[in-house]
Design a protein that fits this description.
Helix content is about 5%, strand content about 25%. The protein is mainly beta and about 230 residues long. The strands form 3 sheets. A 10-stranded parallel β-sheet has the order 1-2-4-6-8-10-11-12-13-14, with no helix packed on it. A two-stranded parallel sheet has the order 3-5. β10, α1 and β11 form a beta-alpha-beta unit. The relative contact order is 0.09.
Amino acid sequence: MVQVELWNCRQMTSLPPLGLLKSLKKLRIGDMRGVKEVGVEFYEDDSCFSCLEELEIRNMREWEQWAWSNGLGEDSVPKFPKLHQLQIRNCPKLVGKLPTFLPSLENLFIVDCPLLVELPKVLPSLTRLHFTKCLEAILRSVTNSTSLTSLKYLVIGLCDELVSLVDGEPGLLPCNLEVLNIYGCPNLKELPSGLKDLKSLKDLTIKGLPPSRGFAAQLDSSSYYEL
């Protein structure tokens, strides 16, 4: 079996041991209101999910704990070695961190997960990163990370509490970034320094900010700046 969808199973309180499906490549889970924790029973053993390429988890409104944020050591859980796309959407109670090491991840979407605070520490293959309705802490991890060397496309949207992408430091964006799109962040006051020095940046779009922010000095003629 290479694809599994678990959807709208509202009476289930835990996930089955899907890690037993050694050939699984695509997994979608959603609308399971009874699930509050995803623990080691989901993984089964350290060799599970060795073929998984796409993982989508959405509309898990009561989900609070993932094994990664529940005190388990990195050696006790699988590392999804072939995972190239991860989507976590509308999981408002999920706390903590994502898996630390995702070596093949290329696309990461985090939408309406306000309690997630940190990106994985090692993301050597990540090229596309989308944040929507997230808090400032996880957004700042982009400018504090040294592992996002492959990131080319960054979207940040509808983050009302975002004031700054830097945290007392100059804050640098990934050096190979080509597209930066920020929209619907009305309280944003400060952009990372060095925007003009990003030689790879081709498309910079900033929309929906108050005119008093004065970002124009940080932008060049190739930018699209809409108030």
